[in-house]
Amino acid sequence: MADHTNCRGNTNRSRQGPASPKTSSLFIETRIEQAMELVKSHLVHAVREEMDCMRDTIVQLKMRVSQLEQENAALRSSVNNSQPRHYSTISRCT
Description:
The chain has helices at about 5-15, 20-80, 85-94. By secondary structure, it is an all-alpha fold.
C-alpha cells in the first residue's frame, strides 16, 4: 500500500503552512484509512486461517462418519444373522 500521507502533506504544507487544520485533518484521515486497512487485512487473514482449519475438521468428520456407517452396517448384518427370529420381531415392535 502506497503512503499518500507524505505527498498530500507536503503539497498542502507548501500552500497553507505547516500547522494548517486542513493538513492535520487530511493526515488524520489518511492514518485512519491506513489503520482500517491494516485491521481489515488482519481480519481477512484470521478468517482464512479459521476456514482452513474448519475445512480440515469437516474432512476428518466426514471420514469418521463414513467409518461409523460402515461399522454400523457390519454390526447390523451380524446381529440380524445371529439373532433368533422371534427376538428380531419383538425388538421391531418396541
